[in-house]
Amino acid sequence: MRRRGFALASLCIWMLVGTTAWADKKVAPKSDSPDPGRKPLSLSGDEWDLTPTTKKKPGDKKKDPFDAPSKTKLVGWDDTGDTVVRKYPYLEHHGYFRLRTDLFWRAYLRTNVTIGPVERHFTSGFLPPLTENVTNNDPSSIFKNTGHRGATTTASANLRLRYSPTFHLSEGLRIHATFDILDNLVLGSTPDFHPNRPDAPLSVFSTTQAPVSGMRNSIYDAIRVKEVYGEWRMLFAMLRAGRMARHWGLGIVNNGGTCHDCDYGTYNDRVELSFNVWKFTFALGWDFVSEGPTSASSRTYLGQPYDLDQLDDVNQWTLEVLFNVPSSAKQKKEHKERLYTQLKPLFQAGLYFAYRRQFLDQSKDTSASGLNYNEYKFVNRNAWMLTSDFWFKLEWKPAAQHYLRVEFEGVFVYGKLGSTAQTDSQGTIDSSRTITKWGAALEAEYRWKQLTIGLNAGLASGDSARFFGVLDSSNFINDPGNKTISNFVFNRDYHIDMLLFREVIGAVTNAFYVQPHVAYDLFAGDEDSLGASLHLMYARALQASATPGNSPNLGFEFDLRIFYGERNKFRFEIEWGMLFPFAAFRNTPDFNTDLIETRSPKWATTIQGRFTLIF
Q: Which residues in 296-417 belong to E strands, given as ranges?
């Protein structure tokens, strides 16, 4: 017992000493990034931020980094230039707490219709209130009075605690992880009651919230591990391996999901080797996209499972070439000096290539691991895709209190899909497809003192077959006549609005949009912000035949935001968005053959609040 107590005390002392204390902060230059929460462009979205300040001399005795303290400079967002004595190993803490509230009024556009025993929602991906469904409005039901035709409002609140620790083992080794605790938990969604409980048989008698338990009172677990990967910094290269967030360019394809309003994120099981040559950074990567069935079984929770076949794997190989993107503290300092001191333009660019391949795929009837070995079925897939992505960023401060940023990302995807069959019976039908899709986004802004004006624009190719292919239905799996997959879909964490693309369609696809915006910050300082922004957006479909109303006019939206915050500590925002949908969202007899008359969309609005604590 004494030994256990001594060991526990020693462990607590070691953790207390090894955990880094917060360094004193000074006023730092304000970032010129449009979104402080967005992960910067880098090979993995996370760069080495420790650079030795002392150089070894000939004859110096080699020291064990686990025994000797290391003098380092804190480099990055809060770089003050102060020297801090660190002793390896130590733990670095980052993350945020987020509380969001939202109220939606008529976000389903009032185009839902009831035909027979089935209610169909065609023109908006946002569902109406449950009091609008068929069951609650069935005249023959004893619960018929629970329905309310014309309900328009839904409101809720949700929270998330994101914790992203980094374990620094030595100057060349570290481990990074990201945990989301109560990830987007809707407040009040786990009441403590049960129909068979004498004390609380109804939810109205619940006295507390039950702890979140996956597959019991929640779909998700209370703690969700988003990424865990290790890094080894060698003499001339960097090796990363594990499950890691990926961000490239503006984030219309690979988006790290690090903004304070993000919900998704691109996470890859990946091995990556990167190295620098002059101003260029090269990165070679191997992504394990899908391995198919494994030997994992519900009969045992231990052991090491393995992949049961290689031909059903989806593998992806990537090549990245970056120009003038800083990967060290020295390069960051040079960029800052060029931009802020010398007042010279700063240009960065990158090329990204990804080749994806799959030969076989699981049959829809055997889509999970743990089955009997002889029950697994394969179907031919014979698919490949080549993605090419170009990105550039131009920054310039022509004078004091002036700042210009122009950033662009363009993507082209081409490939072949041998078959879309999901079962044996579908394998006899010719369902080959050609994949040809593209998309691009532009962000431009000019800042003068506290005033910022800008323009966002983008476009994503669409498919002539009906459906947008995000929240409504697939437009190529069950359509034998659609031989070309051409609808490009932006990453859902690339936000440009509050309603049209984010809620009604689900993402930017089959569309062109233009969005001028203006913002003003009352505080001239760099540490605090208090102001407002206004975004105006018009969107138009590239393929009118894919819209419910067979019209290219999607809609007009304006979004007003009021914000207050202190950099790297907290941020409070209130947003109001209003959407005026156009003819593309009409529910017509041509789109819905069971419909007798056309149902026109109604305008919708939302009010949202967000409170974020950052550490």
A: 314-323, 346-362, 378-396, 402-417
